[in-house]
Amino acid sequence: MKRLLEAELIYGRLLDISEPHLVARYNKALEGFGLKPTGLERFSIDMTGFSPEIAQELGDRDYLDPNRVNRRFIILTPAQADLPVVHTSFSNTAALMHEFFNANSRAINAVTIKDALYGEIEDSVSVVEDIDDLLSINEVRFRVLSAEDMLGKAAELRELVDRLKKVPHAWADDAMLDRMVELAKRTGDIRQNSLVPEELVFRHEAFWANHFGGVYVFLDQKTTTVICDPSVPGFRRSRPWQVSYIPIGDYARIYDFLTTTNRLQLPQASWVQDSGLFQHRADMVIRGLINEADPDADLLNADRIWLQTWIHRNAALVARDGTYPFLQEVARAIAATGTVKMQEIAPENRFLLVRAAHDHTDKWLVNQLIAQLVPRDFVSRFVFDKQGFYAAYERYGEKFREYVVATLTGTYLKDKTAFRHKLYGLKEE
User: Fold this and answer.
1) 269 and 141, same structural domain?
2) Distances 67 to 47, 188, 191, 387 between C-alpha atoms, Å
3) Are residues 19 and 62 both part of a single domain?
4) How far is residue 26 from each of residues 74, 80, 107, 232, 389, measured CA to CA in Å?
5) Domain count within the chain
6) What is the Cα–Cα distance from 355 to 370, expressed in whole angstroms?
7) Going by C-beta distance under 8 Å and a sequence separation of 6 or more, which residues neighbour residue 294?
8) Are 211 and 205 in contact (CB under 8 A)?
9) Do 134 and 157 fall within a single domain?
10) Which residues of 326-356 are buried (b: 16+ CB within 10 A; e: fewer)?
């Protein structure tokens, strides 16, 4: 992973933590979780407070994700709201954290001046043993504590203020007044500073979970749809009266589900030609074929002439695979007629031609599923399915790894927003 780290393709855009008071607060949060405090004087964190350096030190990548459910978090600064989530078991962890930051920004800004917030994103299960456990998660509650007990002090001060206002002659209680002064020195004026997060319960919408090799859960008004390996415990047995189950290898049923629920943008000349998506995927296919045929091939320096020569010399291999000629043929059909008759396309090839509907709330999750179903497109996999990308990267040879890193840094990392908009039609929200 060294090459990925150097190129910031893994653990990129994290926040550096080196100020002693922030390290001390982080350690108090770790101790609050029953974990050993770090001996590091400098480390980096993501939106949830996860640190790859501390994970390595503890020998536990799941130190903030025990049992891979009820995710823990540590908030040292409001700046974490703009960071990515680099390690999680649920695809919607980032969305839930964003909701928490947005709904409680005043309290977070006030508390983190003198303290750190930490706690758990609690749901209805403590261990995931089958699909029914995942389906039972309808909402989550943020259980919030503070490293220096700022929240406890603010709550105590509020109670004393209420007592001062309501209890006759309470103003004559010198001990109480002294305690109020002592607490106010720590919390400031709680009438002006909102120190306690108030919105703590959030809906658990559609998601992907990394349990059992990966489970997609889509929610519609009257039905829930689960897409995963049929060997997963509870498949077709958990709530069969209200849950539709689709095997991850059933391309036809997955396609039908996504189209009938308006989650796909089907190929039309109006976006296909401007996006360059077909050409991008054709290029990914050819380079994948070259790597499979010759792992030592120097793809980094392969120009168009070299690629065309390779295609001609390996015409039988390209034809036998069939994907590249298929994409070329569909591109010509789009240019000539403006559309594609999708029902005439083999189900396993349909996902090469589509992208998520950019106006659907599940667009990121749908693009993740498409990326998984089109594995040779490592760029799309990196953008939407990083865990799948990293697993695939581990199987690549050194030459192909070099090419993959150069491609991602030379395209996607140059301007992520523009790249996502052009290729996938996504706009920043």
Assistant:
1) no
2) 20, 38, 40, 18
3) yes
4) 7, 14, 18, 37, 31
5) 3
6) 7
7) none
8) no
9) no
10) bbeebbeebeeeeebebeebeeebbbbbbbb
- Token pair in block for residue 225: 């749809």
Six-digit token pair at 392? Answer: 């695939």
Q: How far apart are CA 18 and CA 76, in angstroms?
A: 12
CB of 117 closer than 8 Å to CB of 200: no
Predicted model pTM: 0.88
Largest Cα span, the chain: 97
pLDDT of residue 12: 86
From CA 205, how far away is CA 219, in angstroms rounded?
7
Residues 140 and 176 in one domain: no
Rg (CA), the chain: 26
239, part of any domain: no
Q: Are 374 and 384 in contact (CB under 8 A)?
A: no
As a whole number of angstroms, the distance between CA 76 and CA 17 comes to 9
Query: pLDDT of 288-318, one tens digit each?
Result: 999 999 999 999 999 999 999 999 999 999 9
- 242 domain-assigned: no
Lowest mean pLDDT among 41-45, 196-200, 379-383: 196-200
How does pLDDT run across 81-107, given as a tens digit for each residue?
Answer: 999 999 999 999 999 999 999 988 988
Distance CA 69, CA 215 (A): 14
Which token pair is 344? Answer: 């005439």
Conformation bin of residue 258: beta by default, left when phi > 0, alpha when psi is -120 to 50: alpha
Integer Cα distance of 291 and 288 in angstroms: 5
22 in the same domain as 63: yes
Going by C-alpha positions, the residue among 269, 271, 304 that lies closest to residue 286 is 304
Domain residue limits at 387: 249-424
Among 36, 120, 107, 144, smallest CA distance to 71 is for 120
Report the alpha-carbon distance of residue 87 to residue 215 in Å, rounded: 17
Query: Shortest CA distance to 216 belongs to which of 240, 238, 245, 250?
Result: 245
334 within 8 A of 340, measured Cβ to Cβ: yes
Contact assessment for residue 4 and residue 408, using Cβ atoms and an 8 Å cutoff? no
The two tokens of residue 241 are 């009266």
Cα separation, 245 vs 419, in Å, equals: 34
| Cβ contact 413:404 at 8 Å | no
Give the residue from 216, 269, 258, 244 showing the smallest Cα distance to 356: 258
Answer yes or no: do 298 and 381 share one domain: yes
Q: Is the dihedral of CA 233, 237, 241, 245 positive or negative?
A: positive
